[in-house]
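Good morning C.,

I know you're traveling, so I'll keep this short. The sequence:
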Amino acid sequence: MTCEVNESELRPNVFVAGLIQPGDVVLTTTPDRMSKAIRAVTGADISHAMICVGKSSVIDSTGDGVHARNLERLILEPGCAGHVLRPATPLTTDQLHSVISFARAAVGTRYSIPKAAKSVLAGFVAGRRQFCSRLVAQAYRYAGMHLVSDADFCHPGELLKSAALVEVPNVLRNLSSEEEADWRENIDNVQAMRDSTNALLREARKLSSEIESLNDIDAFLVEHPEGDADLVNALRSSGYLELWREEFERNSWQYDVASMEGHDGSAERKQRYCEELLADEKLCQNRFVLNHAGYVTVNTLHPRQYFALQVELYNLLTQLHGRRINAATTWLERRGLLESAPAKLLRPHTPEWFASLREWNPMQATMAEAAIRATGSLDVCSVCADDPVRDYALVSMPAAGPGTLRLCDDCFRIRSVDESMKPF
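The tokens, ready to paste straight into the viewer:
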């Protein structure tokens, strides 16, 4: 008598990315010996944990450190489990931002094999190096939500059994033979980012053994300006500043609506891409805008060439991201799939104007606020506090910020050399 084997059970599985949201916990395993050992000790069918931080983007801690990876390129071999867990009590917007911010701030942190092995035990002192389940649990603890009893030492099986999480159903599907060949040939598009980040950190760690993550480089450089030249060289030699080019060339159709119209992909694929991009933009804080604001501030307080290069990089990335948003919006509007909403310019020196400017350039917002306090009037120049003034709008709507200024005649003449403006 023979046993019939369900053919679907012998096929690899992939995640249905459209069902997975930022903040979700993704649990997986592999046929590797280490994964089998973890499963045997913990009594769970999984051995690895990740956090979803955006459309098809997850962050995890593996042997090459804490990095982002593309969920859509992840293949679960036949017989390997995969789960997606979501907070039983939905996260607030602030909590979600905290979870994602914590995970992103850890990027580059080295993986700790000993601490991962000890995570099934108790009584060990937590260190700064990461392993997968610790990263997830600590990110949630940072947001005020406790998934396990000890976020510093926990294993993936504890996350799977956490009463604070519920499982999202039907998140896996079989890969057909045709799909599998295509998926396995496609590279993980964020591997270059991982390699570049690790190269930058290797050079930075030669300056200080305390550096674990990219954020640690910033903190080190504030205290040690003498390291600026070495870190600038490391930044450039790692290829970190040029990573955007590969993405831009590979997906150039996403940055211009005419290119999107002419792209040979199906209308269904384009619609799904556009809708997911806009949904992700609405749900999550724009990390390019946030990083730009952070580097503007730190470079104003502690001028370094390394920080200045990061300001330039995130200014460029914000502009490129804005092009993607505009192309996706226009494509959907042309098909009646999205209600047209004209860009809204903000009247200078209103609370909304300051909030928008503070998000993009907090130091400029601080200077404008100081000028207003010093004069006791809102009707002064945003830059120098002189009067009389007029309100101006940038001719080209910026990717971030209010897009308007209140300027005296002298400041208008100076600013309009580089930025075309019109009366508002």
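Safe travels,
E.
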